[in-house]
Amino acid sequence: MMIQRFVVVLLVMVVWVGCGEDEPDKVKNVKAVEVDTHQGMVLIPGGAITVDDEMVNVNAFYMDKYEVTVGQFKEFVKRADYEYDLWNEVAEYSPTDSHPMIELSWYDAKAYAWWADKRLPTEAEWEYAARGGLVDKRFPWGDDQSVARDYANYAGTGGKDQWGVQTAPVGSLEPNGYDLFDMAGNASEWCQDWYDEGKDTKVLRGGSWYLNASNLLFVRRRFNNPNDRSFINGFRCVSSN
Ligand SMILES: [Ca+2]
Predict the structure, then answer these.
(1) What is the pTM (predicted TM-score) of this model?
(2) pLDDT tens digits for 224-236?
């Protein structure tokens, strides 16, 4: 009599363990899979730009039209089993799923971007996109500070800016020349680059709902320790493919 052999097939779940340089350690699940990876993004043409006194050539890339929202980040935390528990703090200034995600570190932003198969913009990419095709202007819409509240939620209220002590739902104000919303004001946006040579702080751009109009100027570059989670800092993603 033949001895029947039972072959046990083990289905092994492949879990990323952070072996690649761009894979955040805390992301425990697989990446999001979208049919159209450029959904909600706009194509930014390449070109040259001078940032922090350095001329940089920027290749064409896609950028999120809107800041990453609370709803999108919740979806990431749930599906990627990501460790995050500051939802009460988030709700204080970004009360609905349509508001920009805030209270997140550079590492949190980086983890989301990796999961979404995107990345954080370099500072040059961020500013090139924020300029919206205009040359040598002070703000994303031009030089006229008197119309700032048409384009930006910053400290105080007036005109289209109806948000005094909180972020506005993303896309509430006018877009720039590349159809990007909130490149000035609302959440400050984490960039990929280090701000300082000692690599202690990361670049943040775009001013914020909490800061005054002068922070919307391109010359105003902000920075924070990448571990800081602040009520004014958020992000958006880009993609090169
Ligand atoms: Ca405001």
Answers:
(1) 0.87
(2) 999 999 999 999 9
